[in-house]
Design goal:
Length: 99
């Protein structure tokens, strides 16, 4: 068994695919700071990325890892149903996606 460990800052303003991923927490936080420098947030806007969290995935071989990453559930627990993804993103932001 092998382990893939990385840091993830979920995107809170758009689709999860725009979340930031890095090898270290420090690198992930720097990516968020770099984004903030390039894209200023207007007063009253929400934070664009959630605080980095550690992701640890255990896999048997390269094929197992790529199968998990590209599968419906994905490594980060994604799902192909866009309503589900939006609900999950809203929950991570501490809100609700109910209209």
């Amino acid at each position: 068994m092998a382990t893939l460990t990385y840091w993830l800052a979920y995107c809170t303003f758009d689709h999860d695919r725009y979340s930031l991923r890095a090898r270290t927490k420090r690198e992930c936080m720097e990516m968020v700071r770099d984004y903030r420098r390039r894209t200023p947030i207007d007063e009253g806007d929400q934070e664009r990325f959630a605080p980095p969290i550690k992701i640890v995935e255990t896999y048997t071989d390269a094929f197992d890892l790529i199968s998990r990453a590209l599968g419906e559930e994905g490594i980060e627990g994604g799902f192909w149903n866009s309503d589900y993804e939006e609900d999950q993103a809203a929950q991570r932001r501490g809100g609700s996606n109910d209209n």
